[in-house]
Amino acid sequence: PVLVVDFGAQYAQLIARRVREAQVYSEVVPHDTPVADLMAKDPAAIILSGGPSSVYAEGAPGMDPALVDTGVPIFGICYGHQLLVQALGGTVEHTGSREYGRTEVTVTDDAGVLHNELPRRHPAWMSHGDSVTKAPEGATVTATSEGAPVAAFEDTGRRFAGVQYHPEVGHSPHGQEVLRRFLHDIAGIRPQWTTSSIVEEQVAAIRRQVGDGRAICGLSGGVDSAVAAALVQRAIGDRLTCVFVDHGLLRAGERSQVERDFVAATGVNLVTVDARERFLSALAGVTDPEQKRKIIGREFIRVFEQAERDLKAQGDYRFLVQGTLYPDVVESGGGAGTANIKSHHNVGGLPEDLQFELVEPLRLLFKDEVRRVGLELGLPETIVHRQPFPGPGLGIRIIGAVDAARLETLRAADAIAREELTAAGLDRDIWQCPVVLLADVRSVGVQGDGRTYGHPVVLRPVSSEDAMTADWTRLPYDVLERISTRITNEVPEVNRVVLDVTSKPPGTIEWE
Ligand code: XMP
After folding, report:
1. Is 217 assigned a catalytic role?
2. Which is one GO molecular function term here (predicted)?
3. Full residue range of the structural domain in which residue 310 is found
4. 430 and 347 in one domain?
């Protein structure tokens, strides 16, 4: 792998994703990983990420200088650029000229490999207080900026390079090309990380792990569990059984999408449990969001456990498939992830004492890779490109108590919004667009000749990379208008459509 050493900024995961976009497998490792442990992973190259620190700050994370003697190609970015320069005997100084944000970079006459034939002056994203003032002995300075005399250097002989700017962000339009050139042309790595190779490797890994055992997988209707199930199905065929719990809090068409489209694409064994009554009665009269979530989580576990007991008759299901993604793994410190299940998980918070061995075929993948794998496995676009949907479902999109009639209302409004967004070709531009029913709010309206006294629904379109932060999406007015007109015409209980224009933070994406 290419190892991305994380110096504590939020950029390491992004760098790892960009490396994979260059078709090279990458992993994020903490900055205090000893050199011996790095070498044990047999890295094809090492990338030192940016970080929040000054190399001179007290307690600033450092880099073991021995790293440069390992013979592994190294690319430094921002803070990592400065660390690499220091380790190689160059100079980093507090020059007093900081650069933050979009900055003009000038390619030198000897543009080297990384900046060869790029526009002589081009924008790049900077964020630094210290600057490299002298490149290491034997290295070429290939770019400069006003605040960074050595905005880029390379030593192709020893296979080292560094850039002061952030090539991984969209604001550095040539960044991906520079990163690609480092990986392919300086480090000499062959681009082999492709979707078909991912599928092949994961299928082989699942076969090794599961042997002739049986696995069970809870389907949520979401992308991750669907792709995880499809991979395991490809590996072990009908020794996988999927369980889909219809808790009555699903969107329109969701159940049939799983029962029809997913089964048609994979031929998987599917057990659907109709638990609508059970959830509705458990939720009756409950308005507190946390209480709703707890009840839904608890009921889900009961239903899932019952399904698992029912399956015992067929054989021993020792493995549980989970759609855990790489960002979850990195954020939880890269833990081993077998043994018992931790409480907070995709399936909806399974209890700790539920004894399964986990199969997590997506634990090396980012979301965009998961989607590509899904398509490679023949899953329909309707599943692969669907918006994220919370486990507690529409239950946390009804502000107020949940009942069958309110669910029906929200389902109808939500279906219209999704239809119009899809028709406008906006599905890929938005992260998701929850529709929220303000069930305890009423407002006066007029329709035909009559007064109405109905409920508002809120449209909550957001753009996001990872749902940790989000911005409200500027949807075209004509699309908003169609959604509003249709909902108020077609859903009798709703007489008002409002737009949520709050970013996250301070708002969360969901209302509850
Ligand atoms: P918030 O509302 O916290 O949501 O900004 C961030 C993302 O997570 C989804 N979400 C959930 N997903 N179980 C899930 O599987 C949950 O309990 C849950 N709550 C929120 C939400 O849709 C958004 O994509």
Report:
1. no
2. ATP binding
3. 195-384
4. no
